[in-house]
Design a protein that fits this description.
The chain is of the alpha/beta class. Helix 7 runs parallel beside helix 8 and helix 7 packs parallel to helix 10.
């Protein structure tokens, strides 16, 4: 049985100030939980419903290594930041990513504030083996529950994520994505050590960053439409840059 204090603590992690205070975050969903366990993430507690246990009996043995509580559907609704809880939720310690590796390529996010976009970019980066993400001031919290849910376990497969000044990218060839830039296909050769700079959908790249870029690159438009989602654009650009 879960205590009132435990319920209160988990609910508090919906807010950034308490995530920072406790250095913990909420993880939801079977795929995210499986990724955390496979990566030996520091899971402090797992709560799940009887319905989840009946549908996913294969994962219960794996979960047995961690403190856990069977809770009601109503309790889960109180704890979950989602409108449609998946049946399982975990409390994890925030990941200590250490220091950036200046020899590895990096994605720099310039004031990306949408949680779905942030999570998609993290998943996409891991898929293409680009495991360092730098965040400008003004980006959404890395451990926001909606970011974590959208990232589907990518947090546990990144080598480094952290806030970074753009000036700290000295030594990188800075490639900024902007629809007014030159076609990506004209970037030949692709720099050996690059930082891909992605701006928010609402505002694009900050003027001070745009003015400091080594290259401004664009994805050629074949059909119609005003713009691409920043997560989709990141995937297209990484497909070319990592070939």
């Amino acid at each position: 049985m879960i205590s009132k204090n435990q319920l209160k603590h988990i609910r508090s992690l919906h807010q950034k100030k308490f995530r920072d205070q406790h250095q913990q975050f909420i993880l939801e969903g079977i795929r995210s939980l499986s990724s955390a366990m496979d990566a030996n993430g520091e899971i402090e507690q797992i709560v799940f419903t009887s319905s989840f246990a009946q549908k996913h009996a294969e994962i219960l043995d794996k979960m047995g290594a961690y403190p856990q509580n069977l809770i009601s559907e109503n309790e889960l609704k109180q704890l979950s930041p989602s409108t449609s809880p998946s049946g399982v939720l975990a409390v994890c310690n925030q990941i200590d990513f250490g220091l950036i590796n200046p020899t590895k390529n990096v994605i720099y996010l310039d004031q990306v504030s949408d949680p779905g976009n942030m999570g998609t970019i993290l998943r996409t980066a891991v898929w293409f083996g680009v495991n360092q993400i730098a965040l400008s001031p003004g980006c959404i919290d890395l451990f926001n529950p909606k970011v974590v849910r959208s990232a589907m376990g990518a947090h546990f497969n990144l080598l480094w994520v952290g806030e970074l000044s753009f000036d700290a990218l000295e030594g990188y060839s800075c490639l900024g994505a902007d629809h007014r830039g030159e076609s990506l296909h004209n970037l030949n050769p692709i720099p050996e050590k690059w930082a891909l700079i992605m701006g928010s959908e609402a505002h694009g790249l900050s003027p001070e960053i745009r003015n400091a870029l080594d290259h401004t690159i664009a994805i050629p438009k074949i059909g119609t439409g005003e713009s691409l989602n920043v997560g989709v654009a990141t995937g297209i650009l990484l497909h070319t840059l990592t070939q």
